[in-house]
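Fold Annotation — chain and its backbone
Encoding — discrete vocabulary of local shapes
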Amino acid sequence: MTIWSTVSAIARFAGFIDSERVLVIIKHSFHLADSYFRIATMPLKSRLGMFLWLASTASALVSRSPNVNAWTVSRGHTAATITGIVRDTAKRPVANVEVTARPGAHRSRTDSAGRFTIGGLEAGRYVVVARKLGYAPVTWEVNLGLDGRVDVQLSFDRTLPQLDTVVVSADGSCSRRSVDGFVCRRRSAGGRGVFMDYNDIDDKGPIYTADLLNDIDAFRVDTRSSPSGTIRVASPARRGGCLTSVIDGRRVSLTELIPQRPWDLVAIEIYAQPDSVPEEYREFTARTTTSQMRQCSVVVYWTTKAPLLPKT
């Protein structure tokens, strides 16, 4: 006789018709393995003690809910809620702000009073992100318990000009180190490259910045460990390929790292094929190794710190 058949018998004896749910509750609560624990091999006193323990455990677990059928194991429990209000730099409520809770595709929009509600969440840690055209995004981390409710106060601390201004050089090239260059190249790309502004990025709902490259055949995205925790990293899908990352117009470095959080970006340019890279970034396509010269893909990340227009 296994431990779980014993629990089932006790549950039925105690009047709990849905004994299978009792089994699930106890298995999830105590992480016991059915195949390694058999009551039949126990001495009589131990068996009697185990029967009493199982009976009290089943009763206690089920009594926590007046209806056993309404009980949900914590892994699938989705009754937690995040509420809050979003304000601007003058502390005024902001309407029609898109608010997301990540991981997952949990979304809401603020009403005329700046308030929002995101319900149906499981227990765990979430990053709440508020974004609206014309403002730099703001984030807040929350920890939710079962049936928990957290109220957050979000404030846009700076405005973000709309991506519609373009400066074109006399030779016809676009700006290299300011966000208007992104707009310029997107207009004149002619099908070369992939361009996403922050609205496009939000629509894809990435958890990590590298997830933006998931759907592009030239790249693969791997999970790696780092001093700051688990991160996602993009690399060439082809053996022997290379990828150059550019941050706000400059090659990535120890002082200029790729933002791991996609909401720290205002735009991204992706050139999977070296011959599609525009003149402004052509120097980043070549990489010399000990044996040969490689032609690299180039990805240009524009962060919230990037200047909108070239410096005069």
In short: The CA atoms of residues 28 and 76 lie 11 Å apart.
